[in-house]
Structures are given as C-alpha cells and as structure tokens.
Amino acid sequence: MDWKYKTVERSKSCVTLVCTKTDSTTNAMTKTKNGLDRRPNNQFCNHTKASTVAFNFSAEIDRLKDFKMAKKHQSVKILTLGDFDLRGKTVLLRVDMNCPIEPTTGEISGVKRIEEATETIEALSEAKVVVVSHQGRVGNKDYIGMEQHAKILEKMLGKKVTYVQDVIGTLAQSEIKKMQNGDIILLDNLRFCAEENYEFSPEDAAQTVMVQRLGKLFDLCVLDSFPSAHRAHPSLVGFSQIIPTCAGKIVEREVRKLEEILTVAKAPHVIVLGGSKVTDRLEAIKMLIKRGRADQILLTGLIGNVFMRAQARIKYPLGIKGEEDAVAKAHALMGEYPDVFFTPVDVAINNDGKRTELDVRLLNKGDQIYDLGPKTIEHYSKIISSAGTVFISGPPGFFENPDFSYGTKAMLEAVANSMATTIVSGGHLTSALKKYGLAEKITHISTAGGALVLYLTGEKLPMIQSLETAATKYRSK
Length: 477
Ligand code: 3PG
Known about the structure:
The chain is of the alpha/beta class. Helix content is 36%, strand content 19%. The protein is built from 16 helices and 19 strands. Strands 7-8-6-5-9-10 form a six-stranded parallel β-sheet, with helices on both faces. It has a six-stranded parallel β-sheet with strand order 13-12-11-17-18-19, sandwiched between helices. α2 (112-123) packs across α3 (147-157) and α9 packs parallel to α15. The longest helix has 18 residues, at 57-74. It is globular and about 65 Å long. Residues 96, 98, 137, 227-228, 231, 277, 449-450 line the site of 3-phosphoglyceric acid.
C-alpha cells in the first residue's frame, strides 16, 4: 500500500498530519510534545489543504501501519473451553513444557511452564486428557524425553499422570483408547516424531502421519502452547483442520491481555533484548523497528555480544552457531538504524567464579561475559525510565548466581518502577521477577520468548491463525 502525507494543522502543542493511501481515503494523527498519539476518531477524515511538516515522515507512516496492525490484533476470534461440553470427551492438549535443562545432569532446572500447564489440565477434569509437548531441539543437550515432566506434573496436580514412552505408535494409540474420564496421559517428546521438526502449511500438516494417526482418536484439540505459537509444526497447525479445536486457558489469557496492551501501547517503545536464540531474535528485530514497536533496543546477553562483535568492540569469535552470519546481520541492522541500538559499555566477567567488571574494549579471548557492568546498568535504567512501553525478553546475566545477578535485578527494577506499560517475557525472567518480588508491578508477564517477540511485531502467528480458522469452521457445531 502506498502512503502519501501532506496536510498539517498546528497548534501550540501538537501537529496533525493527514496521511493519504492510494485509494485516497485519509488517516489523521497527532504528534504531541510527548511523542506520538494516534487518533482513531479522526480516521478517514478529509482534509484538502496541504503543506509540509518538518519531521521524519516515514517513521510516522510506519506508526500508522503499526496502529493498523494493533487494530488487526483486536479482531482475533478464537474458541475457548467454555464453547464446548467437555464431559467424557477425549481431548488432545498441546502445551509447551519445554523446560530449561541442566546440561551436565540432564535434569529440569525450571518448572514454570509445567506449573502453567496445570491450569488447563484442571479445567479438563471431567475429560480424558492426553497432554503433548516438545522438549528441546534435536542435537541439543535439552532434547530429552518427558518422563521427568510427568513426575513433576503428577506432583503439582496431586493426581496420577501416566507417562507413555511413545508419540504416534501402537503403544500410544492403545493407551489412549483405554482411558477413562479423569485420566491424564503425557506422551513423549513430540519432536521424537521427525515431522514435528518441520514447518508445514495447515493443509499439509493435516496430512502428516502424526495428525492422521492421532487425530482420529480425539473429540477435541486444545491448543495452549503460546510459547511455540510462532512454529507451524503439525501439532500446532494440523489438528485444527480435522477436529474441533479451541484455545486453552494460557492462550486465551495471553491473546486477550496482549490485545488490550497493543491497542494502548505508547511511544517511545523500549526493548531490552537478551536471550540465546540469536537467529530468531535478529529476524524479529527488523520487523519490530519497521512496525514502530522498537524506538530503542537495549541489547544484553548473547545477542548483545553479537552486536558488540559487529561493532568490533569484541575482537574475537564468540564460538556460537551461525556466528558470522549473525554478526553480518547485526552489522547491517546497525547501519540501517543507527540510532536504535545500544550495546553494553562495560560488563562483568566470570573470573574463576568471582565477578570482575571491565570496559568492553578490554575484553580478551576466553573471557566469559556473565553480566552487565555498572555504567551500562545506569545508562539502560535511565532510558527505561522515560519509556512509554517497555518489553524485556531474555535475562541480561546469569542471575541464578548472586555475583552475576546485578544486571538482571537492576533492569527488572527499572522496568517495574517505570510509568510505562510493561511486558516481561520468557521463563527465566518470569522466575527472576518472582525471586525479586516485582511481579505485581508488571502489566503483563509471559513465559513465551520468541513467540511473544513475533506477536508484538503484528505477525499473525501460525498457531493463532490455526485457532482462528477453527473458530470459523467449528463455531456453529
Ligand atoms: C520456546 O521455548 O521458545 C518454545 O518452546 C519454542 O521452542 P523452539 O524455539 O525450540 O521452537
């Protein structure tokens, strides 16, 4: 869509633009002293006189598009548990119990996502519930079976959970057929089935062996896997094609809350971005900027290190997968948006288990960056304090170790104490918030990481799309 913008009204404190689409309808918006305000009531008003305005039009136009994106989110229509009679039904419940795993012991080190899954399982107490989830990625240390998850879940629910060491084979199928009302089964890691490691169109996903074999055993599919809503895997987009499908409690809450937030979100939008899934993050960053969701991006963690390498402030390879490509992308992004990115000026390294703070230019090969340094903490906190909306994803340091928790604690405190609308994303930060007693001060907390970042860009996530399709298909039944 082509946008033109010309007409202006000025008063002491504001400037009104009129933006014209190629089909000659117009949108108006107001730039106030404090930043940009959108005026939905002025949409499609007609202005005839034109003059020029002296500020960055393309950014403002992007914001209008962004506003349209937010409006799009408002129209998410999905079915929920309340739309179905659940008694006696055999239900496939797709959750996200992808937990952090301690690499040396192979043990689950954070149970937040298992805890979250209990809410929908409890709401299905009169049904036969088959819970499914993925865990880790093929080839990684966190790629394990679901036996531990079943034990933890059983403890949390105070109710028997049968772990079945199979996903789509005869064992899984016969166990499902034997179930009684109130029974709960947890199948094995969905990614043990090769198909679950690929993305499909919904139509093709419906033809996979997984969906064909399991689909016929269920009356209803409940999708409650918000942290993996950005994946188009068979379990997330395939079942809705062949059986009634609705959202579980987490997805229902996330969608409602995020819609509310996106409609009122105010600039400046500050993103504090860390985490280890660098490739995913790099892809989302550009969309966040283009769609007016990121005015300032404060980088931390592994992705911060990648940007510091791209700035040549870290002069040695970091030793991460796909590093050269990631560094090139980071370099290009900083070239394209020079005022958006902030990287640490100082860090804390792990010096034989002790904290040593130093300027990033003094880093040497082999130094393990474990936290932000004090100057960076101060600088980032100031930026956060004047934000209109703050989104923080991925811990800035190894906060589990008190010596390296300063950055994470300080960033969360700055977010919690700001006047902004605040979103905290990801399992690690959710645990940290709880640990520091800050959870009450946050507008929205989500265990989702990458999915939430993409949701904020305005992208329609495959799992949400799948729920919307199901709502049109099965509403009248
Ligand atoms: C997550 O933890 O972000 C989700 O479980 C998705 O996992 P993935 O990035 O391995 O698909």
